[in-house]
Amino acid sequence: MTTPKPVGRRLYESACQVIPGGVNSGTRYVGEPYSLAGAQGAYVTDADGARYLDYHAAFGAMLLGHNAPEVNGAVARSLDGVDLVGVGVGETEIEMARLVVELIPSAEMMIAAMSGSEATAQAIRLARAVTARPLIIKFQGCYHGWHDSVARNVISPAGRAYGRDPLSAGILDDALDSTLIAEFNDLGSVQALFEAHPERIAAVILEPIPHNVGALLPTQEFVEGLRSLTRKEGALLVFDEVITGFRHALGGYQQVCGVRPDLTSFGKAMGNGFPVAGLAGRRDLMERFDFDGGDVLLAGTFNGHPVSAAAAIATMTYLRDHPDFYTRTHTLGERMRLGLAGIADELGVAATVSGFGGVFVLYFASAPTLGYRDLLRNDNAAYLTFHRRMTDAGFLMLPMALKRNHVSGAHTEDDVERTLEAAHDVLKGMLA
Ligand code: PLP
Hints:
This protein is of the alpha/beta class. It folds into two domains: 6-67 and 324-431, Aspartate Aminotransferase, domain 1, CATH 3.90.1150; 69-321, Aspartate Aminotransferase, domain 2 (3-Layer(aba) Sandwich). It is built from 15 helices and 14 strands. The chain has helices spanning 6-18, 57-60, 69-78, 91-103, 116-131, 173-177, 187-196, 220-233, 252-257, 283-286, 306-321, 324-347, 372-375, 380-392, 413-431, and strands at 36-40, 43-46, 51-54, 109-113, 135-139, 179-182, 201-206, 236-240, 263-266, 277-281, 352-356, 359-363, 395-396, 405-406. A seven-stranded mixed beta sheet has the order 4-10-9-8-7-5-6, sandwiched between helices. Strands 1-2-3-13 form a four-stranded mixed beta sheet. A three-stranded antiparallel beta sheet has the order 11-12-14. α3 (69-78) runs antiparallel to α11 (306-321), α4 (91-103) packs parallel to α11 (306-321) and α7 runs parallel beside α8. The longest helix has 24 residues, at 324-347. The protein is globular. The two termini are 15 Å apart. The structure holds pyridoxal-5'-phosphate. Pyridoxal-5'-phosphate is lined by residues 59, 115-117, 120, 143-145, 207, 212, 240, 242-243, 267, 277.
């Protein structure tokens, strides 16, 4: 039973007076009027005083933990310098780009943005400019932001999967028709689209691990196949590493799988909770953004903001200088996955555990999940119940279909063990 949230309810009701739906991003409403009042390390506290161990991690934007002193200290120091001038370039912007180029294997140049959506919008426009082709391919289940080219076909019900499933009203038909939908881990579905639209496809964009539907793990054959197919067809390969970037490895998932995309978008964890994102890639492509000689517009009042850049530099530097960060979070993530699988097995729950690094997901489906088609078998109601009850028990897991959970640098072994004990009780209770 969810604990009443009188303060949260009051705040939510006042929010509804001035903010449509009472939240500033649709997925922040989780069926209960949560209002968070504090955050530190691996924990958050709500306005009604309840404390949660946080696996939501602001949709993956928190990586080192909340209010990480290394990042917040750098941000505080940046406030003593230049705020925003809007002329030329600042040292922190250069340092941020330099670090991205140093850390991300395929990055030769980088442009800054303030959100992942802007980064993927830039990637798509650049791909169209470079190839002079109109279409792009995205995968059912991947999310790349709220703009017209990609705001479709994420968590689609069976009847609309692979068909026309916009996330929003107000998207031009032309935009919807310019985005083709393929099946993740199915190279044949991509090949078929290239055959059906010869020399019309500018780019294939994907989350290398589609974390917006939990964690579909790509086969090596699939990512390598995409690389050679796009090359052969003259299209760009875009890795959207907005979630996987910096989280799964310093150089993102491209470092893990060894495949070099032409362009990479990143954001979220890069600034450990501060608004910063970017697009990186091959020099010859990125130079199209050059205001003097290029032809693709690069603009944005807040791009490379000193506060954002300070947060990004501090986060990237911390990760670079602490390689044990990945060993630790991956070990905790693995313990969580093995623990959950063991509990499901012991209790006879038809479930499959997935994830990578510190990310873990408990699908309520009994067979391996390779593509979106397999997720149509997931018992979404059970998934929601599990996440809701875990949250009620003090373990914040986003109560939304197919959302993933994140272990951060602030979680401990003890946290993981307590989480597993709670998961045992919750799953047992769900069987009763
Ligand atoms: N790409 C991926 C993989 C994402 O998960 C998201 C956001 O969830 C975005 C892009 C869009 O990023 P933003 O919400 O910062 O615009």
